[in-house]
Amino acid sequence: MKPLPKTTLEAFDRFWAAYPYRAENPKAPARVVFARLLKEGVCAEALIAAAGRYASFISREKVKSIFIPHARKWLNQRYFEDYMTDPDAPASAPEGPSPDHPLASLFADVGEGPWLSYFAPLVIDQSQRPVRITAPHRFALERLTRDYGPRIVAVLGPVKWEVR
User: Fold this and answer.
1) pLDDT band at 60 (very low <50, low <70, confident <90, very high)
2) Does the pLDDT value for residue 164 go beyond 80?
3) By residue range, what is the domain housing residue 117?
4) Are residues 114 and 62 in the same domain?
5) Is residue 159 included in any domain, yes or no?
6) Would residue 36 count as lying in a domain?
7) Do 63 and 27 share a structural domain?
8) Same domain (yes/no): 74, 25
9) 35, part of any domain
10) How many Å is the maximal CA-CA distance in the chain?
11) For the segment 18-52, what is each residue's pLDDT rounded down to a tens digit?
């Protein structure tokens, strides 16, 4: 098998960041299916956004990790088609988060998938210092602090992280 194009690998990394956490979720088989879907004409950005919407649903419904399908299966069985649009969004939904969201300035940088997966479910209490941010689960907290922590601190100042 020849190496995947850099653009495909970068898009897959954004998809992987948006997809909800599931223990023992092999990455390589999901990458192969993702690349195949792109060759078939499925839009990478649509897959990433769908993964973000799915992660938001998982978080909202408090679905346990064990019940989340492997990313490979989710892609291969085309479950993403159920999340290509947001059924809860009004017909004229605004692009991105509310401008009142404390981290709205980061949306353009992080993209819709990670925003829906990790930023939208956060509870942010700015009434105290340091600002208290509560993440829905440990995986989200680790992903946020690792990948976006310095940018979040640059916007909000000192942060105290917690898990629900």
Assistant:
1) confident
2) no
3) 104-163
4) no
5) yes
6) yes
7) yes
8) yes
9) yes
10) 54
11) 999 898 999 999 999 999 999 988 888 889 989 98
Q: Please, which residues have CB within 8 angstroms of residue 54's CB and are 6 or more apart in sequence?
A: 19, 20, 74, 79, 80, 83
Q: Structurally, how many domains does the chain consist of?
A: 2
In terms of domains, do 108 and 79 share one?
A: no
**What is the radius of gyration, based on Cα positions, of the chain?**
16
- The DSSP-derived string for the chain is -PPPPHHHHHHHHHHHHHSPP-TT--HHHHHHHHHHHHHTT--HHHHHHHHHHHHHHHHHHT--GGGSPPHHHHHHTTGGGGGSS-TTS-TTPPSSS-TTSTTGGGHHHH-HHHIIIIITT-EEE-SSSSEEEEESSHHHHHHHHHHTHHHHHHHH-SEEEEE-
Handedness of CA 164, 124, 87, 10 (dihedral sign): negative
Q: Minimal CA–CA distance to 81: which of 109, 113, 43?
A: 43
Q: Taking 60 as the threshold, does the pLDDT of residue 87 lie above it? A: no
pLDDT confidence of residue 157: 94
**C-alpha angle 44/47/51, rounded to 5°?**
140
User: Same domain, yes or no, for 13 and 47?
Assistant: yes
Q: Domain for residue 91, yes or no?
A: no
Selection from 118, 130, 120, 123 nearest residue 156 by Cα: 130
